[in-house]
Structures are given as C-alpha cells and as structure tokens.
C-alpha cells in the first residue's frame, strides 16, 4: 500500500515536471525569415507568464521595444507592485 508520503512525492514530481529550467544546452532555432521589426516595436502587455519567484508581487507588466538611431533595440519593462500599487 502506498502511504501518504508516496502520494505526496508523486504529486510533487508531477507538478515540477512542467517547469522550464533544465540542465543541458538550449535548442537552436533558426531566425524567422519574414520577421518585421517595425511591427514588433512598441508596447506589449503581458497576458500570461510562467511562475517566477521574483515576480510574485508584480502585475500589469508592460514591455516597450524601441529602436535607436544607431539601430540598437532598447527594451524597457514596467510592472505594478502588487503590494504598494506603484510602478517599479
């Protein structure tokens, strides 16, 4: 008979199996052939996210992609602090 510890270990293992981090190398993905940078620039609003302990108290995440005259892409992230309701 499987005890409560066996059931808990099984549930814990099933829960952590879906996490993204792992040992090893990242897979190589080819760049998109028809990527349109100008359509990508601007503000993006977070709809979904993976759990990260550093984001527990954050909400309303906005990321802004901007192109500098030099051609560099600047990324700015803004979040609302869930505890104090102010921008970080």
UniProtKB/TrEMBL annotation:
<keyword id="KW-0732">Signal</keyword>
<dbReference type="Pfam" id="PF08212">
    <property type="entry name" value="Lipocalin_2"/>
</dbReference>
<dbReference type="InterPro" id="IPR012674">
    <property type="entry name" value="Calycin"/>
</dbReference>
<dbReference type="GO" id="GO:0000302">
    <property type="term" value="P:response to reactive oxygen species"/>
</dbReference>
<dbReference type="GO" id="GO:0005737">
    <property type="term" value="C:cytoplasm"/>
</dbReference>
<dbReference type="GO" id="GO:0006629">
    <property type="term" value="P:lipid metabolic process"/>
</dbReference>
<dbReference type="InterPro" id="IPR022272">
    <property type="entry name" value="Lipocalin_CS"/>
</dbReference>
<dbReference type="InterPro" id="IPR000566">
    <property type="entry name" value="Lipocln_cytosolic_FA-bd_dom"/>
</dbReference>
<feature type="domain" description="Lipocalin/cytosolic fatty-acid binding">
    <location>
        <begin position="36"/>
        <end position="81"/>
    </location>
</feature>
<protein>
    <recommendedName>
        <fullName>Lipocalin/cytosolic fatty-acid binding domain-containing protein</fullName>
    </recommendedName>
</protein>
<feature type="signal peptide">
    <location>
        <begin position="1"/>
        <end position="18"/>
    </location>
</feature>
């Amino acid at each position: 008979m499987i005890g409560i510890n066996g059931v808990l270990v099984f549930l814990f293992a099933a829960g952590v199996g879906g996490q993204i981090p792992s040992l090893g190398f990242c897979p190589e993905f080819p760049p998109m052939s028809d990527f349109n940078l100008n359509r990508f620039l601007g503000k993006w609003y977070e709809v979904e996210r993976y759990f990260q302990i550093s984001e527990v108290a954050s909400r309303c995440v906005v990321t802004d992609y901007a192109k500098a005259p030099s051609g560099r892409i600047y990324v700015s992230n803004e979040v609302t602090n869930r505890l104090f309701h102010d921008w970080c």
